[in-house]
Structures are given as C-alpha cells and as structure tokens.
Design a protein that fits this description.
The protein is an all-alpha fold. The chain is built from 5 helices and no strands.
C-alpha cells in the first residue's frame, strides 16, 4: 500500500505547482483551489498569499526526493529566488522596450505580416465630410412679418 504524499505538481502548475499539488492530493480540480485562493485574497480573509509562499517553501516538488526537510526548504528558497529573478528580468525588458519607444502594442507581431513603409506611404488619407450646423428658426431668430388688419 502506497501512502499519499502532498507534493507540488509538475504537470498542473501556473506558478509553483502548489494549487496543482493540492488538487491532486485532495482529488479536486486545481482551478477551484486557485479560485478559492483568489477569492480569499480579494476578500481579505487571512493571508492566502503568505500561505501560498509557505507551501511553496515546505512542500517538495513532485518526483524529487530530498534527504531532509532542510533540503526541501533550501530547494524551495532557490526556486522562489530564481522565479523572482526571471520576473524581474521580464519587467526590466518590458520597461526598456517602452523607453525605447517600442511598446508591446507597437512592436511587430511575429504571427501577422506587417506592411512595409512604402506601402503605408502610398495609402490615401481618409477625408471626412464637412458638417455645417443647422439652426432651427425660433421666435427670437424669426423675422417679424407685417400683419394686415
């Protein structure tokens, strides 16, 4: 008989595999666990973010055997540090793109063809029709008529 062990999932992970591992352990869809944590985070009940970080630190990754709990903890700390470093590098790259004038919205996409500068220079400008305001005649703007009695 094998014992069920709580581990962080390698297959069903978004960040560290904590919710995926909890889902596998309790035989529940990990999306429900993620939604529950997000709900608790926004409601302000306790501190689900700190609980997530603690579980990331102390729950071993699936498929890895550690000699001691301190090995599990140090591996968790290393993984958090590497993930934070990668996130920082991604943010730094995005900031540099924005500063250089090449934002994500204006950067060319690799999956759609872009028009060449010559093709865009030949495009004719769109001319909008001129609109003249109309004034409805009122008692103040209507000229007086001679009344014959």
């Amino acid at each position: 008989m094998s014992t069920k062990r709580l581990t962080r999932s390698n297959d069903n992970r978004m960040l560290a595999g904590v919710c995926g591992g909890l889902g596998e352990y309790f035989n529940v869809d990990p999306t429900l666990i993620r939604l529950g944590l997000a709900f608790l985070f926004f409601v302000g009940a306790g501190s689900p973010f700190l609980v997530y970080l603690l579980l990331w630190l102390i729950v071993p990754e699936a498929g890895r055997d550690y000699a001691s709990p301190s090995d599990t903890l140090s591996a968790g700390v290393d993984e958090i540090a590497n993930t934070a470093r990668q996130f920082g590098e991604e943010v730094r790259n995005k900031v540099e793109q924005v500063r250089s004038g090449e934002s994500a919205a204006t950067a060319p996409s690799t999956d759609t063809p872009t028009a060449t500068p010559a093709a865009t220079a030949q495009a004719e400008p769109v001319v909008e029709p001129e609109v003249t305001p109309t004034v409805e005649p009122t008692a103040e703007t209507e000229p007086e008529k001679d009344v014959v009695a």
